[in-house]
UniProtKB/TrEMBL annotation:
<comment type="similarity">
    <text>Belongs to the clathrin light chain family.</text>
</comment>
<dbReference type="GO" id="GO:0006886">
    <property type="term" value="P:intracellular protein transport"/>
</dbReference>
<feature type="region of interest" description="Disordered">
    <location>
        <begin position="32"/>
        <end position="73"/>
    </location>
</feature>
<dbReference type="GO" id="GO:0030130">
    <property type="term" value="C:clathrin coat of trans-Golgi network vesicle"/>
</dbReference>
<keyword id="KW-0175">Coiled coil</keyword>
<keyword id="KW-0168">Coated pit</keyword>
<dbReference type="GO" id="GO:0099631">
    <property type="term" value="C:postsynaptic endocytic zone cytoplasmic component"/>
</dbReference>
<dbReference type="GO" id="GO:0032050">
    <property type="term" value="F:clathrin heavy chain binding"/>
</dbReference>
<comment type="function">
    <text>Clathrin is the major protein of the polyhedral coat of coated pits and vesicles.</text>
</comment>
<dbReference type="GO" id="GO:0005198">
    <property type="term" value="F:structural molecule activity"/>
</dbReference>
<dbReference type="GO" id="GO:0030672">
    <property type="term" value="C:synaptic vesicle membrane"/>
</dbReference>
<keyword id="KW-0472">Membrane</keyword>
<dbReference type="Pfam" id="PF01086">
    <property type="entry name" value="Clathrin_lg_ch"/>
</dbReference>
<dbReference type="InterPro" id="IPR000996">
    <property type="entry name" value="Clathrin_L-chain"/>
</dbReference>
<feature type="coiled-coil region">
    <location>
        <begin position="114"/>
        <end position="167"/>
    </location>
</feature>
<keyword id="KW-0968">Cytoplasmic vesicle</keyword>
<dbReference type="GO" id="GO:0072583">
    <property type="term" value="P:clathrin-dependent endocytosis"/>
</dbReference>
Length: 217
């Protein structure tokens, strides 16, 4: 007589009971652990979409295996990640809009004052030029008068010096007997001058005056 396995009998009974409560085989998951399949929230992945109908496939974005292309991406490399600057929206730069400038209207009073001020300044400039010309003429006349007076004084001085020179030469060349000492006395300076560095010539002057007086007598 064959010996029955108690564990197998127990599992068979439990399997029958769970089959009544639910159509899904609870013990079939033990076999799935040995052959795992990727599921998403109770649904199989795109490789196991045989149980999904057409609407479910469209909803979950399931496609045929022939249309799916897989690429091996290196998630550990930061070079493959998008740069933050590339994620910013590209907005077209709009050129600045030229704002028309309205012409400034000058009030009548300001325009009149500006014209009067311009006329007043022109008149003052003209008067200033006239005054400058008058001062130039006056300075020119004063300079001419000064040169004229200077020339006259120089001419008088020349004539006076020339007359004095002629008189001096005439007296010097006149040889009158008995007036030798008198001529010598005229060449001497008898006015006493106080000078610390000058020699005392008072005795010499006294002798000359005595000789002049003695010769005259």
């Amino acid at each position: 007589m064959a010996t029955s396995d108690p564990l197998a009998d127990f599992l068979a009974r439990e399997k029958d009971e769970f089959a009544v409560l639910d159509d899904e085989d609870a013990f079939g998951r033990v076999d799935e652990l040995s052959h795992p399949t990727s599921q998403l929230n109770g649904f199989s992945d795109t490789n196991g979409h045989a149980n999904l109908n057409g609407d479910e496939q469209d909803f979950f974005g399931v496609q045929n295996d022939d249309n799916i292309s897989t690429t091996n991406a290196d998630v550990t490399s930061f070079d493959s990640l998008p740069v933050a600057s590339d994620l910013r929206p590209q907005s077209a730069v709009t050129p600045p809009v030229a704002i028309p400038v309205m012409p400034r209207i000058e009030p009548e009073k300001i325009r009149k004052w500006r014209d009067e001020q311009k006329t007043r300044l022109e008149n003052k400039d003209a008067q200033e030029e006239k005054e400058k010309e008058r001062l130039r003429q006056q300075a020119r006349k004063e300079l001419e008068d000064w040169y004229k007076i200077r020339d006259e004084q120089l001419e008088k001085t020349k004539n006076s010096n020339k007359s004095a020179e002629q008189e001096f030469v005439r007296e010097r060349d006149v040889d009158l007997p008995g007036q030798e000492w008198e001529r010598i006395a005229r060449l001497c300076e008898f006015n006493p001058k106080a000078s610390k560095n000058a020699k005392d010539v008072s005795r010499m002057r006294t002798l000359l005056l005595q000789m002049k007086s003695a010769k005259s007598n």
